[in-house]
Specification:
The complex is a heterodimer. Chain A is an alpha/beta fold. Helices cover about 20% and strands about 30% of the residues of chain A. Chain A has five helices and eleven strands; from the N terminus they run E-E-E-E-E-H-E-E-H-E-H-E-H-E-H-E. In chain A, the strands form two sheets. In chain A, strands 4-3-6-1-2-5 form a six-stranded antiparallel beta sheet, covered by helices on one side. In chain A, helix 4 packs across helix 5. Helix content of chain B is about 10%, strand content about 35%. Chain B has a five-stranded antiparallel beta sheet with strand order 1-4-5-6-7, with no helix packed on it. Chain B has a three-stranded antiparallel beta sheet with strand order 3-2-8, with no helix packed on it. Chain B is globular and about 40 Å long. The termini of chain B are far apart. The chains are: A alpha/beta, B mainly beta. Chains A and B meet through strand 6, helix 5 and strand 11 of A and strand 1 and helix 1 of B.
Chain lengths: ~240, ~100
């Protein structure tokens, strides 16, 4: 698809609080283009003196949503752009964006094979676009999401994910909470490791299509673990978010 | 890729997806799904898979197979310097070109 990727001025049409450190920004774009699940937008802030800061944020909304796009942003300590969005930006503000961008870490519902999604923290965001896209697809294959977070309140989209899993359309959602767990927690309580991957991904067979997104070290651990349990390297796509917040 | 577990920079590394916008400016194409061949080991990978280091004045992209540098970009007031001696070939598929 050929379209302009020039910078444009988007208007923040809504802000939703997801967790204590995560908000979702709905943007209305004068030059909206269709996106693929997994793509991102670049956001640029420019000061009067010419200084600029630029970051990439994954699209959370599915390709089925037209005209607007939702970016879910985690506030990182000393983050210039995320700090501005969280502490300063309000509905009606205009921000400079460019996108959608990315042709590697993308999934569409026509791709073959069971879907294995592995998220660490805010790495869930591009995978959520994939799950929302899957939910809208007429034909659904089996899918598993393994979602690792530190604390219960860090599980972005928790209710929506539980509702998706309860829909009985072949998706199972598995959580691991690595630092604190609520009373009566029956999910995993440790970091993602090979044994966990074998247990969670086992039902999908040897050739799932895997998307891993999260902090760099978590992504590498999960990717190496999948290769250990026999998933082909060419079936694994990764997106690194850098150090943990 | 062999990685040194004690390397403090390792957790800071990103991948080609994170610099997709910058690559788009340089090449006029979405490069993340385009292939690049490493001049060191001969491995071919999509550029979204390349290991990116961006916490420096420039950005460095390394081969995910052998870890050698494939591409360096430095933007200065005098212009952009692009060092691609570590890449034997960079392929741009027609569909990735943008108007």
């Amino acid at each position: 698809m050929i379209h302009s990727i020039n910078w444009q001025i988007a208007t923040i049409s809504g802000i939703r609080v997801e967790t204590p450190t995560v908000k979702t920004y709905s943007l209305t774009l004068p030059d909206w283009s269709p996106h693929r699940a997994g793509q991102h937008y670049d956001v640029r802030l420019r000061a009067a003196d010419g200084y600029e800061a630029q970051r990439s944020y994954s699209i959370a909304s599915p390709p089925e949503q037209h005209g607007t796009v939702e970016l879910t942003v985690e506030k990182v300590s000393e983050g210039e752009v995320s700090g501005y969005l969280h502490d300063v930006a309000v509905t009606g503000d205009r921000i400079e964006v460019r996108g959608p961008i990315g042709g590697y870490f993308v999934w569409d519902s026509m791709m073959e094979g069971p879907l294995l999604l592995i998220a660490g923290g805010s790495g869930i965001v591009p995978l959520m676009a994939m799950l929302r896209h899957r939910a809208a697809a007429p034909q659904k294959g089996p899918a598993v999401l393994l979602f690792s977070a530190r604390h219960p309140e860090d599980l972005i989209y928790h209710e929506e994910l539980d509702a998706m899993a309860a829909a009985g359309d072949g998706l199972s959602v598995v959580y691991t909470l690595t630092r604190t767990q609520p009373e009566g927690w029956t999910g995993y309580t440790r970091r993602i490791d090979t044994a966990m991957l074998a247990h969670v991904a086992g039902p999908l067979g040897r050739e799932p299509l895997a998307f891993i997104c999260g902090p760099t070290l978590m992504v590498e651990t999960a990717s190496n673990g999948l290769i250990e349990i026999g998933v082909g390297a060419n079936r694994i796509k990764t997106e690194r978010f850098g150090p943990t917040a | 890729m062999d990685v040194d577990d004690d390397d403090p920079n390792r957790a800071l590394t990103l991948d080609g997806n994170a610099v997709a916008g910058r690559l788009l400016e340089l090449f006029g194409a979405d490069m993340t799904a385009n292939d690049a061949e490493c001049a060191h080991c001969g491995g071919t990978h999509m550029m979204g898979e390349m290991i990116a280091f961006t916490h420096a004045p420039g950005m460095v992209l390394r081969c995910p197979s052998c870890g050698e540098i494939m591409l360096r970009v430095v933007e200065t007031p005098r212009g952009v310097y692009l060092d691609v001696r570590g890449s034997a070939l960079i392929h741009m598929a027609p569909g990735s070109r943008r108007a």
